[in-house]
UniProtKB/TrEMBL annotation:
<dbReference type="GO" id="GO:0003677">
    <property type="term" value="F:DNA binding"/>
</dbReference>
<dbReference type="Pfam" id="PF04397">
    <property type="entry name" value="LytTR"/>
</dbReference>
<feature type="transmembrane region" description="Helical">
    <location>
        <begin position="98"/>
        <end position="117"/>
    </location>
</feature>
<feature type="transmembrane region" description="Helical">
    <location>
        <begin position="28"/>
        <end position="48"/>
    </location>
</feature>
<feature type="transmembrane region" description="Helical">
    <location>
        <begin position="137"/>
        <end position="157"/>
    </location>
</feature>
<feature type="transmembrane region" description="Helical">
    <location>
        <begin position="60"/>
        <end position="78"/>
    </location>
</feature>
<dbReference type="InterPro" id="IPR007492">
    <property type="entry name" value="LytTR_DNA-bd_dom"/>
</dbReference>
<keyword id="KW-1133">Transmembrane helix</keyword>
<feature type="domain" description="HTH LytTR-type">
    <location>
        <begin position="177"/>
        <end position="286"/>
    </location>
</feature>
<protein>
    <submittedName>
        <fullName>LytTR family transcriptional regulator</fullName>
    </submittedName>
</protein>
<keyword id="KW-0812">Transmembrane</keyword>
<keyword id="KW-0472">Membrane</keyword>
Amino acid sequence: MSVRAMIAKYVDWIDQKYPQNYLIQKPVIGSVLLSFYCLLFLIIYRPFDLSAKGEMSFEATMALYTVAMIPVHMLLIYGLRKMWFFSNRDQWSIRKEILAILLILTGLGIFVFAFGFWVEGPLNRLNFATLMDSCKIVFLTCAILYGMLTLINLRYLESGQIPVTVSGDSVEETVHIQSRLKSEAFTLPLSDLLYIESEGNYVVFHLFQNGSVRKEIIRNSISDVEQMLAGFPFIVRTHRAFMVNIKKVSKRTGNSAGYRLQLEGAGDLIPVSRSNVENFDRMYWAMR
């Protein structure tokens, strides 16, 4: 394999879509979890020849540092989300994961260095060596948890499955669906809708009611139905023959060439064609 081919293969790998690290995905819970982990790690193993400072015990000193890290870690994550490169969660990749972790840990290292002036006093701290020591402690401590949570997601690269969780209350609205035959019109309860499928000159509405899937069939085109439901952004066209209620998506598999969606209560996998992936991703993340 040529050097150019190896570089191209590496670039393709590092730019693959990748689940976001839990600590970044959930800033509040993640920050508390990271703080608790760091405190336990430092107290149990006492690495880096750390010791108590002043009148405080070693445990109290470490607790002070790790608790103070919580709001800083949260601010660093929210700050990254404001940056264009990291703002689009549905386009998260291995490259962005690595860069985000490096920036967050660097920020925490600088904070620990600065916070030490208040905890330990300024004597012999204002130098480059102390700054590097602070960054080293943060990187070697926090990188273990960050690395574990990142490596856990490696299995999705081979399986192509990206687990998703859709939150939000059920919509209690109903819509009157017109048919080309007036006798076939019916009222659609949006909170029960799983997906809509086109079958020739008919449109099939798949509803989950009373623990089972029920079908409503009317004579119409899926394009006309799409116009009727245009005011409900959580109902999205995914394929020339399918529309999906995003709030019912429990899992998706695939990549930028197309998805397969698993819906709550439905046995069939619903396709997302390549031409609809970008719009699906945009609307899906907007609904989270």
